From TrEMBL:
SUPFAM superfamilies: Glutathione synthetase ATP-binding domain-like, Phosphoenolpyruvate/pyruvate domain, Phosphohistidine domain
Source organism of this protein record: Sphingomonas lycopersici
Domain PEP-utilising enzyme C-terminal: 534-885
Cofactor: Mg(2+)
Gene designation: ppdK
Role played: Catalyzes the reversible phosphorylation of pyruvate and phosphate.
Listed name of the protein: Pyruvate, phosphate dikinase
Amino acid sequence: TQYVYRFGGGVSDGGKGDKFLLGGKGANLAEMASIGLPVPPGFTISTEMCTRYYEDGEQFPDSLREEVAKGIAHIEAVTGKKFGDASADGAGPLLVSVRSGARVSMPGMMDTVLNLGLNDATVEGLAKVSGDERFAWDSYRRFIQMYSDVVLELDHGAFEEALEIAKEDKGFTLDTEMGAADWKALVAEYKRLVEAEWGKPFPQDVHDQLWGAVGAVFGSWQSERAKVYRRLNDIPGDWGTAVNVQAMVFGNMGDTSATGVAFTRDPSTGDNAYYGEFLINAQGEDVVAGIRTPQYLTRAAREAAGAKAASMEEAMPTVYAELAAVFDRLENHYRDMQDIEFTVEAGKLWMLQTRSGKRTAKAALKIAVEMADAGLITREEAIARVDPQALDQLLHPTLDPEATRDVLTKGLPASPGAASGAAVFDADTAERWAADGKAVILLRTETSPEDIHGMHAAKGILTARGGMTSHAAVVARGMGRPCVSGAGALSIDAKAKIARVGGREVREGEIVTIDGTTGEVMAGEVATIQPELAGDFGTLMEWADAVRRLRVRANAETPLDCRTARDFGAEGVGLCRTEHMFFDAARITAVRQMILAADEAGRRVALDKLLPEQRKDFIEIFEVMAGLPVTIRLLDPPLHEFLPHEEAEFAEVAAAAGVDVETLKRRAAELHEFNPMLGHRGCRLGVTYPEIYEMQARAIFEAALDVAARSGQAPIPEVMIPLVATKRELELMKAVVDRTAQAVFAERGAKVDYLVGTMIELPRAALRAAEIAEAGEFFSFGTNDLTQTTLGVSRDDAARFLTTYVEKGIYAKDPFVSLDVEGVGELVQLAAERGRSTRPGIKLGICGEHGGDPASIAFCETVGLDYVSASPYRVPIARLAAAQAAL
Ligand code: ADP
Ligand code: MG
Ligand code: MG
């Protein structure tokens, strides 16, 4: 097998189609080189090598050594430099970067080593050839520092401290004030540190350096932070990373050199304007790490921000023009917004990376719609480009512009959206408090990959340092967390857990609000408002609606939820749970009276009290959903869920029912169940107490007739019988509903169309679907219970072991979040087929939590269900996911 693929100098062994093999970075470096862009030459060691490396017990095969030698020879041939060459005769010593790159970008997850190839001898060569001694020694100290951190895994704090001390001794504040002799002295100090900490001198053999770095990149694939990132992003552990070895270019060679990162469009808003930052006389990592505050790329951005430091457009107009042309070229070539890294070495532009840029949901929509309108992509591609899950960011509230705000300070608007929560100063606390159900805002001077779990747990992220492309900003945008970065006036003391700004303090636990759209940071909580869903969102949704086959309904039981769902485009209600209506304080006493009644007569007295209330509920829902189908599930939960717990409650029910408290308590004890989930619930309630379902059916039909008479638009009730296992159960319950309907229609002298059907949520029901379909007019897959009963896993108790199950790969994802397609899915498929065999065209839907999960929706499309039903806020997500499933 070939493991090494070259690029640069007119050669490209790979291209953009090779992401699996070469990782995203390697594939795109090869692609850029092949379309003639200036890319420093290098080679990629494939992801297959990573897999083999782990299979072989973390060792390299001999063949790899030969291939790498050829790769180095390729770089030497193109650059004219020699790896490990100390003489200053030719073009000087070859330095390389060793970079990781997986199939999908994992920002900051994998470690990069720059300036590799420097040692005590080659540093002299570099100084002579470049004619810049300061640059040579600066590069060497950077190399030792990075290598010690990434490869030798020594404590990097000690190196930073040594640098601080060196600057203090000289009275310097900036790194740029350090001269050649200062760096040289620091190199000596660093080498001493390495030897003390590592027990061996810093490796001087450049080949040892290279293999150490290659091993470290492969090793970083199994680092804790990489694993966390993969888990949060559903990235399989067996993909592996590639390693890129590439000739160094230097942005730190003086004032005609620079380094920067850019997006071809604004990744936050989606605006079609170049967006980015750069630093003069600096090396790659400096921009991202937030060590110096970077300058804007374009003049317009600088002016908009009111910044003084010249933009790249102003400071380096020629190179900037060249770069802008590359942006356009890359965007047209990839037909997507690109995230780019570049370096300018002594006035010459070099491209170091390009990839499809991460973006907020807002930007994703805008870019997709604009690119489709411009003809760069098709509407179908536009639909496919937007991640349905990410829409979630847009569907949630933003700060009320009318609300008063106690503004503490302002930073950069790094990731949009607003969030309030308790201030915390470290990732672990953020995670712990969030697990306890607290909303937290994570405050850090700057974030690093070690903070990922805390950023994920937090509602929002606030940093004192770093730009729009800092780690915090990039990761927050990817996660959809609001983020304010670089709030420079803020000083954060993580040890003391205090943030100070303008004479004020924020302590751990105090509430703060951040607005990632404006950059404002406020004390206390600020009122929020619902977002506006017009514009690009509306356009893309229209396109999605035009291609999708699946209808989208909502799980909703209050008029407010129904209204929200309808505004979000729901085409009916797929699940209206009637039990939620019974918990209302005004009704619970009558409900309890009904449950605790000794006989049918007693139950009917209580049910008579509930009827008008229940009818009112349905009237409100039918009004909002006029003209649309509404699936109403008759009473489902075990009755004991409604029972009184406290003495006073028993007394209240006793008074209402006219019995004594002791009798009631005895009756309550009788209702106790060992396993209520499999107990007296669902249609079993209707079978034993038909009068309950009768009352509910009456409320439904009376309400439907009322609304039809008043509005002229009849709702279409679909009466759903829960937890059916046999045809006979459904027949009995359908008879109750039909009889009640006929009675109500006769009394009123009017009728409405309606259906009676069942949930398929027990394996037996799925298996016997053919005969059950003879009795029922529709099926709705209740995949929450169907998952519980098929897997034999209680949803309420699963948390304790399910994470381990997912970690060990027993289930790919939490089966309650994303449908277990192989198991539960097979039952769904089989029930759909068997149901259709006896009732062709039987209406089929899904109303479990899975109805709002894109992967599960894709499955529903393959089975040919008629609709999915999701919670109101997930309706737009489901509409888009359904469209993607249909493409
Ligand atoms: P990440 O994936 O974390 O961005 P990269 O491998 O892209 O890591 O590298 C980190 C930084 O080093 C980037 O700013 C990149 O542009 C810079 N860099 C990487 N290789 C080179 C090189 N050969 N010459 C100059 N700068 C480089
Ligand atoms: Mg990079
Ligand atoms: Mg159920």
